[in-house]
Amino acid sequence: MSCEMCEVKTKKRSEEEKQKLINRINRISGQLNGIKSMIVDDRYCEDILIQLCAVEKSVRAISNIILDNHMHSCLIEHIEKGDYSIIDEISNLIRRFQ
Fold first, then answer.
1. Which helix (H) or strand (E) holds 28?
2. Is the pLDDT assigned to residue 80 strictly greater than 60?
3. Nearest CA among 3, 45, 51, 1 for reference residue 27
4. Of 43 and 97, more confident
5. What's the CATH code, domain 16-97?
6. Which of 6, 44, 55, 91 has the most CB atoms around it within 10 Å of its CB?
7. Quick one: CA dihedral 46, 65, 81, 16, positive or negative?
8. Residue 20: count of CB within 10 angstroms of its CB
């Protein structure tokens, strides 16, 4: 059964763009696995917190890349089609970043 409310939005990305994003996510996963090992090894709190801060910055960086791409592609496409509801979506996304 299909309905408009159930529709999943998609965004077509180039293979190069996908690979760059996946590489960043793989690095973040590696950082998290390293932090897990630090906890298992009873590493000092400050060392773990420094690594957690690095992960937060990495996640923020990939989020900014995707948001920037969204604004330069999806936002423009919607506005060109006369769909200004995308502005509310962008506003909500920016609020979530704060």
1. helix 15-40
2. yes
3. 51
4. 43
5. 1.20.58.1000
6. 55
7. negative
8. 14
Q: What is the mean pLDDT of the chain?
A: 91
List the structure tokens of 15.
């293979």
Q: With contact defined as beta carbons under 8 Å apart, do 56 and 31 qualify?
A: no
Does the model's pTM come out above 0.70?
A: yes
Q: Which residue has the tokens 């609020």?
A: 95
Q: Which tokens sit at 50?
A: 């420094």
Of 76, 68, 57, give the one whose Cα is nearest residue 93. Answer: 68
> Which token pair is 22?
């996946």
Q: Of 15, 23, 14, which Cα lies nearest the Cα of 73?
A: 14
d(CA 98, CA 33): 27
